[in-house]
Amino acid sequence: MPNVGARPGKERILVVDDEQNARVALRTILSEEGYEIAEAADGEEALALLPGFAPAAVLADVRMPRMDGINLLRRAREQGSDAVFVMMTAFASVEAAVEAMRAGAENYLVKPLDVNAVLVVLEKALEKLRLQRDTANLRERVRERYRFHNIVGDAPELHAVYEVVKRAAPTRATVLILGESGTGKELFAQALHEESPRADKAFIKVNCAALSETLLESELFGHEKGAFTGAIGRKEGRFELADGGTLFLDEIGDISPALQIKLLRVLQQREFERVGGTQTLKVDVRLVAATNRDLAAEVKNGRFREDLYYRLNVVAVTLPPLRQRKGDIPALVSHFIDKYSKAYGKDIRGLAPGTLNAVLSHDWPGNVRELENVVERAVVLCKGSELTADDLPPTLRGPRPRERAPGALIPGATLYEIEREAILRTLEMVGGSTSRAAEILGISVRKIQYRLKEYAAGGREGGAGHDHSHDGEHEPEKAGGME
């Protein structure tokens, strides 16, 4: 039974040994140190205790009846336990130590146990566990802070955008989203709505560039019967439909001067009339606008009203183009592969070696929309379980990477080439997740992002006289860095 007299805040330790005297001795020592202790006489008994007791560490004998310590460790991992395991044995054999470490043990103690050694090894193991858990909790908090529906991206260039969305969403302030075509302006407008108190109300969107002036006016404000040819009945406009919710006006820079005046009135007075009508209507609408134009330049050139510009520009956010956030490309590719594999009923697990390099080398003038179209096309054409360079459009294929046999990279290769191969292959293996790749490779997410930008720009080839030993450790932080 657990020691109920343990000091609060101390970790729980499960002692597993078929020798009762050994268990009693360890209980006494560890209880005096303030740990909470439970005991088990073999692996099966310990396995039954794990879910309820949830120890931070397990001290387990290697050799026990029914289930030995190494099988206990393996079964515990299958159950999802993250407890650190320290194995004990009376046999000081290298083979037993190697087997225990391969199975995932944190350390290894030889019987008869030295009290000081037990405490030192245990504390080091627990400290490592604390750091791992703290890191995981921090990462989850960061992800929760910056998580938006359907938006994929952890690049530092996006963090300032996420922060603005989080701060502006709870308010009713008008937001102007700037950025090139295909950068995801509509997704961020949707995120502003979903993170706001209006989330349970309507999210209405209008593409201002897709309609003529007359049709756009009718779409926005509605019309009365007979207001113009074809107006056979009354129609409610998008402002009315969005009452209480959010109205997203995409390509706001394309509206005519006459409509600019009417839109300005709605923003100033929160009222309007339908086309052909005389009744003044009042609405409560949160407006989000977007454009790929430089509105400040449009104002300077007389093509956009200055007063409307300032009404729209209460909170402005600029989305970075994909060429500035190429570190997000692996995750985006993985996301689109999953999306279109399901849509087309295919079983495609990822990218073949060398394909990611070809994708990174492209400049992506069409941004995320272009990338999505490329991946969709590749999924349609793919004949196997991985996308290859042959599935990409000819403009993306470029020169073929030199084929290498397994293990053939190291002889004659530079450290830079080896590192590049390791990063790209690992990203392909983990579906583009920079955080998972960083954990596997033992480097920072920031370094991977930095390297991907470098590879996309053509990269260096480890030229003579360049010391790469500290690359990525001193790159400048971007705004809103995370993970």
TrEMBL record:
Please give the InterPro entries that the UniProt record associates with this protein: AAA+_ATPase, AAA_lid_NorR, CheY-like_superfamily, Homeodomain-like_sf, HTH_Fis, P-loop_NTPase, Sig_transdc_resp-reg_receiver, Sigma_54_int
Instruction: Provide the GO MF annotations for this entry.
Output: ATP binding; sequence-specific DNA binding
Q: Sigma-54 factor interaction domain: from which residue to which, for each copy?
A: 151-380
Gene Ontology biological process terms, A to Z: phosphorelay signal transduction system; regulation of DNA-templated transcription
Query: Where on the tree of life does the source sit, at the highest rank?
Result: Bacteria
Q: What is this protein called?
A: Two component, sigma54 specific, transcriptional regulator, Fis family
**Per the database record, which ranges form the Response regulatory domain?**
12-126
Q: Where is the composition biased (Basic and acidic residues)?
A: 463-483
Q: Taxonomic classification, please?
A: Bacteria, Pseudomonadati, Myxococcota, Myxococcia, Myxococcales
Renumbered to this chain, region (Disordered) spans 459-483
The protein's UniProt keywords, in alphabetical order, are: Activator, ATP-binding, DNA-binding, Nucleotide-binding, Phosphoprotein, Transcription, Transcription regulation
> Would the keyword Transcription regulation be found if you checked this record's keyword annotation?
yes
Keyword presence, Nucleotide-binding: yes
Locate the 4-aspartylphosphate modifications and list their residues.
Answer: D61
